[in-house]
TrEMBL record:
The keyword Zinc does not apply. InterPro entries: AAA+_ATPase, ABC_transporter-like_ATP-bd, Motility-assoc_ABC_GldA, P-loop_NTPase. This is Gliding motility-associated ABC transporter ATP-binding subunit GldA. The lineage of its organism: Bacteria, Pseudomonadati, Bacteroidota, Cytophagia, Cytophagales. The gene is gldA. Coiled coil: none annotated. The keyword rRNA processing does not apply.
Length: 317
C-alpha cells in the first residue's frame, strides 16, 4: 500500500473553547500507481491530512503509513518516500530556477553529476526549459507550480502528495499543469487535493470526499456517477413563441419538458445525450432564435454538494 490512513484524528487547540476536531477518525488507502483526488470544501481537513502524511504535523490519534513507513516513528523514511507540493507552494523568489532545484536535491542528499542529471531531467519533465535561467520571482504562477512539482520529484519518490496544485491558475495554466500531473501519474502514486469536482474528473478515476473532518465518499467516479441518475438538464430560452412546444418532446433522449416562463423551458434527457446540440439544431430548423442555453451542473457536482453541504441543525453562525 502506498498511503494507508488508519483511524486518523487531528485536534487543534482553540483558546477558550473545546479543541477543534479538524480530522475525525478517517481511514483510507491509496494503492501503488493510483491517482486519487482528495476532494472537499475549504476547511474540510484536506491540508491537515496531507501535512500529517508528509510528517510535518503529528497526528492526535491514529496514524498514516507511506510506503510502509509510519509517520510517527519513521518520519525520515516517509519524507524520502514522498514528494510534497504544499498548498501555498513556498518558493524562494530570489533564487534562480536551476539553483533552487539544486538546493532542493541537495537537501535530499543528492550531489555532483547525479544531482545535475536529476535537475536536467526534472526541468525537461515539467517543461521548464525556457525558464530555467530565470529567478523564481519572475515566473508566472503556472511556472512556479512547475518548479514546485520539479522540487517535489527531485529525489524520485514513489509517492506524490499535491495540495491544491491548480488553485489560482488561469485556464491555460490549469490545462498545462493537469497535463504535467497526468504524465507524472503514469509512474507514481499521486494523492492530490482540490475543492473542484471537474478537477477530479479531469485527472483521476477515484475520489475520496472529505467534509468537516469525515470521509463522506470513497470510490470510483463511475460508481459515484451511477449513484446519481446521470440525467442531463438544460434550460433553453427562445426569442419567439414556440408555435408547437410539443416538438421539444421529440428531441433524442428527452425524458421531460417543463415550461418555466414565456419562452423558457427546462429539458431533461438521458445520460450522455447531446441535448444542447439537439436544441441548437432544432432552433436552426424552425428558424427560432436561441437567446439562452445553459446546462445545469452535472449530477456529480450535485452529489458533491449534497455530501458536503452543512446540514447541522445546531448551526447558528
Ligand atoms: P482544507 O485544506 O480542507 O481547507 P484544513 O485542513 O486546512 O482544511 O483545515 C481544517 C480545519 O482546521 C479548518 O477549520 C481550519 O481552520 C483548521 N486549522 C487548520 N490548521 C490549523 C492550525 N494550525 N491551528 C488551528 N486550526 C487549524
Ligand atoms: Mg487546504
Amino acid at each position: 500500500m502506498s498511503i494507508l490512513v488508519k483511524n486518523l484524528t487531528k485536534l487543534y487547540a482553540r483558546p477558550g473553547a473545546a479543541p477543534q476536531r479538524a480530522v475525525d477518525a478517517i481511514s483510507f488507502a491509496v494503492q501503488p500507481g493510483e491517482i486519487v483526488g482528495f476532494l472537499g470544501p475549504n476547511g474540510a481537513g484536506k491540508s491537515t491530512t496531507m501535512k500529517i502524511a508528509t510528517a510535518y504535523l503529528p497526528p492526535t490519534e491514529g496514524t498514516i503509513e507511506v510506503n510502509g513507513f509510519d509517520v510517527r516513528t519513521q518520519s525520515i523514511d516517509v519524507r524520502r518516500s514522498l514528494g510534497y507540493l504544499p498548498e501555498h507552494n513556498p518558493l524562494y523568489l530570489d533564487m534562480y530556477v536551476k539553483e533552487f532545484l539544486h538546493f532542493a536535491g541537495s537537501l535530499h542528499g543528492l550531489g555532483g553529476s547525479v544531482l545535475r542529471q536529476r535537475v536536467a531531467e526534472m526541468i525537461d519533465l515539467v517543461g521548464l526549459e525556457l525558464e530555467q535561467r530565470k529567478k523564481i520571482g519572475q515566473l508566472s504562477k503556472g511556472y512556479r507550480q512547475r518548479v514546485g512539482l520539479a522540487q517535489a520529484l527531485i529525489h524520485n519518490p514513489p509517492v506524490l502528495i499535491l495540495d491544491e496544485p491548480t488553485t489560482g491558475l488561469d485556464p491555460n495554466q490549469l490545462t498545462e499543469i493537469r497535463q504535467v500531473i497526468r504524465t507524472i501519474g503514469r509512474e507514481k502514486t499521486v494523492l492530490f487535493s482540490t475543492h473542484i469536482m471537474q478537477e477530479v474528473e479531469a485527472l483521476c478515476d477515484r475520489v475520496i470526499i472529505i467534509n468537516r473532518g469525515k470521509i463522506v465518499a470513497d470510490g470510483q467516479l463511475s460508481t459515484l456517477r451511477e449513484t446519481a441518475d446521470g440525467t442531463i438538464a438544460v434550460v433553453a430560452e427562445f426569442e419567439q413563441d414556440l408555435a408547437d412546444a410539443a416538438v421539444l418532446n421529440t428531441l433524442p433522449g428527452i425524458r421531460h419538458v417543463e415550461r418555466l416562463g414565456e419562452n423558457r423551458y427546462r429539458l431533461v434527457a438521458d445520460p450522455n445525450s447531446d441535448l444542447r446540440a439537439a436544441i441548437f439544431r432544432l432552433a436552426a430548423d424552425k428558424n427560432l432564435t436561441l437567446v439562452g442555453l445553459k446546462q445545469e451542473e452535472s449530477s456529480l457536482e450535485g452529489i458533491f454538494r449534497e455530501l458536503t453541504t452543512q446540514k447541522s441543525p445546531m448551526k447558528h453562525e
